[in-house]
Amino acid sequence: MTSKASDEAVAELLREWAPRQRWFAHKGVLAHVQRIERTPLDEGGVAQLVALTVRSGEGHDAAHTVYSVPISVRPAPDPDLAHALVGELPDVDGAPAWIYDGPHDPTWTRALLTLVAAEEGAGSTTFGVHGHSAEGGLPVPAGLRTKVLSGEQSNTSIVVSADEGETPLIAKVFRVLSAGDNPDVVVQTALADAGCGRVPRPSGWVDGQWTGTDGSLAVGHFAHVTEFLAGSQDAWRVATAAVEQGRDFSAQARELGRATAEVHAVLAAELPTEPATPERLAALADGLLERVAWACTAVPALHDVAAAARARVDAVRHVTHAPALQRVHGDYHLGQVLHSAARGWVLLDFEGEPLRPLAERSLPDLALRDVAGMLRSFDYAASTVPEPGTWGARCREAFLDGYSAVAGSDPRTGDQAVLLAALELDKALYEVVYEARNRPDWLRIPLDAVHRLLSDPS
Ligand SMILES: Nc1ncnc2c1ncn2[C@@H]1O[C@H](COP(=O)(O)OP(=O)(O)O)[C@@H](O)[C@H]1O
Ligand SMILES: O=P(O)(O)O[C@H]1O[C@H](CO)[C@@H](O[C@H]2O[C@H](CO)[C@@H](O)[C@H](O)[C@H]2O)[C@H](O)[C@H]1O
C-alpha cells in the first residue's frame, strides 16, 4: 500500500524534477502540482507509476494536464542508475527510498512487460493499469536489456534488445494521459491485425484508469509495445543524406507513395469511414479557416497573406467529389517513417498532431491530409541545402505517382487537387507557428512555402 504522506513527499520531489524533463510540456510556464496518484506495478513495489496532475494558469484560464510518470523506488542507492536519480527521501511507505526515473531501470520495464504478457492488472479501481497482449503478440525477450531513446520526443520510448532468435521490442510510454483511445494503439493494432506489414508488429498495450482533469474517472491508454526495427533509418535521415549528396530520391519517394496509399486502403477497409457530405466539407472548411486565423494571430508576418489563405481553404466548401473520410496517420512527415532493409518503408507514430485534442485526432479525416504532410516534408528536406535544384519537385511528383498507382486516383486532378492545395497550405501555416515557437532558424522554410503555395493558381 502506498501512503498519503509518502505520496506528498514523492510529489514534492517530482515538482522539482519534472520541469527539467524533455517530456514536460509546461516548460517556462508557472505550473502547480494539483494531485498525485501512485501505484506499484510489481509485487516488490520497486516499479511504480505516478499520475501527476499539473495546473497551469488561473481562474478561467486554468488548464489541467495529467502526466504519467514511471518511477522506481529502491531501498538503497543503485550505482547503475546514478544518472537517473530523481531524489532521495527519508521515508516512503515506512522506509528510506531512492527514487529513480523508471524507464532507465530495467526492473520497471520488466514489470510493465510482465503485465502485458500475462494480461494482468495493477493498482486500484481509481488508479490502475491493465496489460493486454496483441493477437499473436510478440513475446518479451528473455535477457531484458533496456535502453531509453534519447531523441526529441514527447513520449518516452524504451528499447528492449534481444538475443539471437528473439525479436527486440520498443515500449512507448505515453506521457500525457488523455481519456479515450490513443490512436497510436488503435490504428497500428487495426493495421497489424489486417496483416498490413507497413507498421511494426505489435506485442501489446497497457490501458487503465486515473482521476481525469475534471476530477472524474478517466479511462485510456498508458503504453504501447511493438517490434523494434533494429538497423532501420528514418526517412528524414535517408532523404536529407540524399539531398546533401546531390543524389536523387525519386525511386524511394515513389515507394513511399505506394506504401502510404496501401496503408490508407487498409485503414479505410478496417476502421469506420464517413461520407464527405457538404455539411462535413463545410465543417472541414471551418476548421481550416480557424487554423488560418490562429496562425495569423500567432505570427504577425502572416497578416499580408491572410485573405488569400482564407480564400484558398474556403474552396473546400465547394468541392463536390471528395473521397470518403477515414482514419489517417494525422501527423505524417519523413520523421514518422522508417526504412528497413527487409520490410521497406514502415510507418510509425499514429498519434496525430500533438496540439489537437485526442478525441479530434480519432475522427475520420481526409487521407489527403497525410499526402499533404509528406509533400511539405520533401520541401523541408530540400531546404536543408542552399541549392537543391529540382530535388524537391522530383520527390513530390514521384511520391504522387506512387500514391496514385495504388490509390487508383490522382490527388493532382479535379476536386482532389483543390483539397490537397488547401491541406498543404494548412500544414504550412501550422509549421510557421511551430517553427516560430520552437525553431526560429527554420521559420523561413514554411514561410516561403506559404507564399509559394499562394502564388500557385491551383
Ligand atoms: N518500432 C520502431 N523501430 C525502430 N525505431 C523506432 C520504432 N518506433 C519508434 N522508433 C524510433 O523512435 C522515435 C520516436 O518514436 P515515436 O513513435 O515517433 O515517438 P513520439 O510520439 O514520442 O515522437 C522514432 O522517430 C524512431 O526513430
Ligand atoms: O514531434 P512531432 O514529430 O510530432 O512533430 C513536430 O515536430 C516536427 C519536427 O521534428 C515538425 O515537422 C516539421 O519539421 C520536419 C523536419 O524536422 C519536417 O520533416 C516536417 O515536414 C515539418 O512539418 C512537425 O510539424 C511538428 O508537429
TrEMBL record:
Signal peptide: none annotated. The keyword Kinase applies. Transmembrane segments: none annotated. Residues 17-105 form the Maltokinase N-terminal cap domain. It catalyses: D-maltose + ATP = alpha-maltose 1-phosphate + ADP + H(+). One of its GO terms (biological process) is glycogen biosynthetic process. GO terms for molecular function: ATP binding; kinase activity. Pathway: Glycan biosynthesis; glycogen biosynthesis. Keywords: ATP-binding, Carbohydrate metabolism, Glycogen biosynthesis, Glycogen metabolism, Kinase, Nucleotide-binding, Transferase. It is an enzyme of class 2 (transferase). Its EC number is 2.7.1.175. Monomer. Belongs to the aminoglycoside phosphotransferase family. This is Maltokinase.
